[in-house]
Design a protein that fits this description.
The chain is α+β, with helices and mostly antiparallel strands and 227 residues long. 36% of the residues lie in helices and 41% in strands. Strands 3-4-2-5-7 form a 5-stranded antiparallel beta sheet. It has a 3-stranded antiparallel beta sheet with strand order 1-8-6.
């Protein structure tokens, strides 16, 4: 008896099937394509701060908290601007001897608006007593999604056009075997922090220009060519 023969026949049969499947499979080609769309920066984020230095933290807290409270009252009058209190930080100031000579305290207010004109006017008023920590523009979520959807359709069309070009050039039919989609947004413009020394003596609207952000969708994948 030869008990090993059935197993050997089965192994050879499976190997033959594997080779046949490999021979039938077409050549694979890696491809990529991308598309970009401009998205208006219709959301503005800003921060303002109150800052003071002094010998005791109690005096600092009174000065800074008074400024912040006044800033919040001013900001809350603008219904189109979202307002929230930011962080508060207290730092020791060391002298040459290594001992603490004084203290510095800073507290922030975060602002968010879709109405750049309203925020511009508000920042102009707040600048008379507070510093501007920074201003950043970006697309709102719905604006970002709309630009991404449009760019995705365009990028997939570009991928298919490139796949067709490869197939036609080689005289072969093709099919998409694998596909991945990724997106990235352009860096929105950021206005740098303005020091307290640059505060305006009068309330003048702060010039703001949002511009656009480039939203890019990248497609990468693999096609399979067949005779």
């Amino acid at each position: 008896m030869h008990p090993s023969r059935p197993t050997s026949h089965l192994s050879f049969a499976l190997l033959a099937l594997g080779l046949a499947a490999a021979a039938k499979a077409g050549t694979t080609v890696d491809l990529s394509a991308s598309a970009s769309r401009s998205a208006p920066n219709d959301l503005v984020l800003a921060s303002v701060f109150a800052e003071a230095s002094g010998p005791t933290t109690a005096d600092l807290a009174q000065k800074v908290n008074t400024q912040i409270a006044e800033g919040l009252r001013t900001a809350k009058a603008y219904k189109d601007v979202k307002v929230r209190s930011g962080g508060t930080h207290t730092y020791p100031v060391y002298g040459k001897s290594g001992r603490i000579e004084s203290w510095r305290m800073r507290s922030d207010i975060a602002l968010e608006a879709r109405d750049a004109a309203a925020l511009s006017e508000l920042l102009g008023k707040l600048q008379t007593t507070m510093g501007v920590g920074g201003v950043q523009f970006m697309p709102t979520p719905e604006t970002q999604k709309k630009a991404e959807d449009e760019a995705t359709v365009e990028a997939i069309a570009a991928f298919k056009a490139r796949a067709k070009l490869v197939g036609d050039t080689l005289g072969k039919s093709w099919r998409i075997k694998q596909l991945s989609v990724g997106s990235s947004g352009g860096r929105p413009p950021v206005y740098p922090r303005m020091k307290s020394a640059l505060m305006a003596a009068e309330a003048v609207p702060m010039p703001l220009e949002g511009g656009d952000s480039a939203v890019t969708v990248n497609i990468s994948g693999q096609i399979e060519l067949a005779d």
